[in-house]
Specification:
Structural class: alpha/beta
Radius of gyration: 21 Å
Strand order of the largest sheet: 1-9-8-5-4-2-3-12
Distance between the termini: 22 Å
CATH superfamily of the largest domain: Type I PLP-dependent aspartate aminotransferase-like (Major domain)
CATH class of the largest domain: Alpha Beta
Strand content: 5-15%
Number of strands: 13
Number of helices: 14
Largest sheet: 8 strands, mixed
CATH architecture of the largest domain: 3-Layer(aba) Sandwich
Number of domains: 2
Shape: globular
Oligomer: single chain
Helix content: 25-40%
């Protein structure tokens, strides 16, 4: 009898969301900043210890807000890794910036902190770090570079909720941070969703204005002004109450979701230890300064050909594994809007080796074991 097909991902759903979504649907206010949005904001402020955390319809839009908040101008440069999702770059290119990519570390797949400083020019405005797989970049070094060169540091922590660097939550170390609540992430607000984390009080008032279509509407509702009007750049960056209600249901059991994912991650990690010891594959590296959130489990094959063969093998075994980002500097738009500083020693090679295994909240032991056995059988 053929094993059941194991999908790569399933959106997280605990059942706790249902009552809150129904309540939101029946409420007199469906647009943003209603009851559930405000509850989520309070939860994140308390959990993160940041001055403010504002829900957005997507992480992409949170990054767009960050680009506006640092007053990015045409011709400015922003340093980031090429191994990331297109939104990381697009949010800044939309403001007229030129993206400067630097190489990654092969152990964590994060930006190589030792290469950032040499990529800085008089036009550099910001450093954007991406915490790949919920494993933190080497933030002490990066923050020191940012301080010495007076650059904004923005954390694309789309994959980083519930992960930490030296005990501090990801998203709270730079000037601004962002989370994603897309259906592929550890927590979702019903398919799409994001969060802008504000770690500097100077950005708070303007962030509210940008988020409210460039108006001071938030101040009006707090009684600070007698009417609201158009005062700055902005757009419609408020999620609906249905999105917030779905997310609120997940936040009430956030610890349970995290522990469930860690259980699957740890089972994979243990199962492939012998193969790594024999240099047959490479497992994820978690530096001692980092506490990860089991956002994903990946392995690295020897090269692109071996990864392609492994993907085909897993598919025939009923396991839907996938590779991940194609480096942005090699894309058509990357050639137009960016440049790669230095040598691409690791970005392309490591991206061609990486393969992600199925991992989601509620992954059954039997399904996980089927994945493990399929990988092991390839290397026999």
């Amino acid at each position: 009898m053929r094993n059941a097909v194991i999908p790569f991902n399933r959106p997280p759903h605990t059942g706790a969301e249902d009552q809150y979504v129904l309540s939101a649907i029946r409420s007199p206010k469906l647009s943003g900043d209603g009851h559930y949005t405000l509850r989520c904001h309070q939860w994140f402020r308390e959990q993160l210890g940041s001055p403010a955390a504002l829900l957005t319809p997507s992480c992409t839009q949170a990054l767009e807000m960050a680009a506006l908040l640092i007053d990015l101008q045409p011709g400015d440069e922003v340093i980031m890794p090429s191994f990331t999702f297109v939104s990381t770059a697009n949010a800044f290119v939309l403001r007229g910036a030129r993206v400067v990519f630097v190489d990654i570390r092969p152990d964590t797949m994060n930006i190589d902190e030792t290469l950032i400083e040499e990529a800085i020019t008089p036009r550099t405005k910001a450093i954007v770090v991406v915490h790949y797989a919920g494993i933190a970049c080497e933030m002490d070094t990066i923050l020191d570079v940012g301080r010495r060169h007076r650059l904004s540091v923005i954390e694309d922590a789309a994959q980083g909720m519930m992960a930490h660097y030296k005990g501090r939550p990801l998203g709270t170390l730079g000037d601004l941070g962002t989370f994603s609540f897309h259906e592929t992430k550890n927590y979702t607000s019903g398919g799409e969703g994001g969060l802008l984390i504000i770690n500097d009080d100077r950005h708070l008032q303007r962030a509210e204005i940008i988020r409210e279509k460039g108006t001071n509407r938030s101040q009006f509702f707090r009684g600070m002004v007698d009417k609201y009007s158009w005062v700055d750049l902005g757009s419609s960056y408020l999620p609906s109450e249905i999105q917030a209600a779905y997310l609120w249901g997940q936040l009430t059991v956030a610890g349970e979701i995290n522990q469930n994912r860690l259980r699957s991650w740890n089972a994979y990690h243990q199962a492939f230890a012998d193969l790594e010891a024999k240099s047959r594959l490479v497992r994820p590296t978690v530096p001692p300064t980092c506490t990860h959130n089991a956002h994903m489990y990946y392995i690295k094959a020897h090269d692109l050909d071996e990864r392609s063969a492994l993907l085909d093998h897993l598919k025939h075994a009923g396991v839907m594994a996938v590779f991940h980002y194609v480096p942005l500097h090699s894309a058509a738009a990357g050639l137009r809007f960016s440049r790669f500083h230095g040598t691409d020693r690791h970005t392309t090679r490591e991206s061609e080796r990486l393969l992600r295994l199925p991992l989601w909240y509620g992954l059954e032991d039997a399904a996980r074991d089927q994945v493990i056995q399929a990988v092991l059988s390839f290397y026999r």
